[in-house]
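**Folding the chain**
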Amino acid sequence: MNKSKQRGCAHAVIIIVLVLTIIVLLGYVFWQNFVDKKEDMPGQSSSIPAEATEPEDATKELKKLTINEGVGVDISFSYPEDWNVERSYNEDSERPSESVNLESPSGKVSIYYYVGPGGVGGNCDPAYVDKVGFVQSENIPGLNMASFSEIIFKSDDKYRLSATGAVTKKYISDVKVDDLACSAYLINFVDLKETSEYLTTMNAVIHIKGVTGSSDNLSYSSIDEIRSIFEEKEYKEAKAIIVSTVYKE
C-alpha cells in the first residue's frame, strides 16, 4: 500500500516537472522568436532607405555689378551667375551714361538698366484710352526713393503688361486702378541726383518676350492670366535683381 502511494507521488512529480519544462521551453521559444527579435531590430520601418529628393531649385551663385563709371552716382545689384550681361557706355564728358542689359538663361526674360541724364514727368494724351487695371508695388530696401511696381493695363475687356520694374516711390503711390495708363509710363524713371547741369536718373525695367509690349496680340482676357507670369522662375529672378539694387552717391 505504501509502495503504491510512493509510486503515485513519483509519477505526479515527474508529470509536474515535465509540464514545467514544457512551459519554460515554450516561453523561451516565444521570447527568442518574438520579443528578443523586436528588441534587436528597433524601428524596423526606418531601415528602408528613403528616396533621394533633389531640391526644386538649388540656390544660384550671385554676382555683383556696379554702375559708377563717370555717372556721378554708384548703383549696384546682384544677379544669378547664369544670366548674360552686356554693358555699354556713353562717354560724353558733359552728360555721361551707362546702360546694362541682362538676359535670363532661356532668353525669355530681360532687364534693362540705364543710369544717366533724364527726368520724370510729361503730359498724358487725352486721346489715350488704355487705363490701369491692376497695380501693386513694394519697397526696394537699398533704393529708398524707389519702389518695384507691377502694373497691368486694360482696354475694354483686354489686359496687357507693358513692363515692370523700378519707379519713383512718391509717384507710384498716386497711381490707382482706372487711371490713364500713360500716367504710369511717366514715372518709370527714378530720380537719383540733381546737379546744376542735369538730373541723374535710373531706369530698371523687366521685359518678357511674347508678353510685354504695346502690340494688340500681347493682350490677355484676364488679370489673373498675367499675374500667373509673376510666379514663373525667371521672372522671380529678374524681380529679385531689381529689388537688390543699392544706391550710393
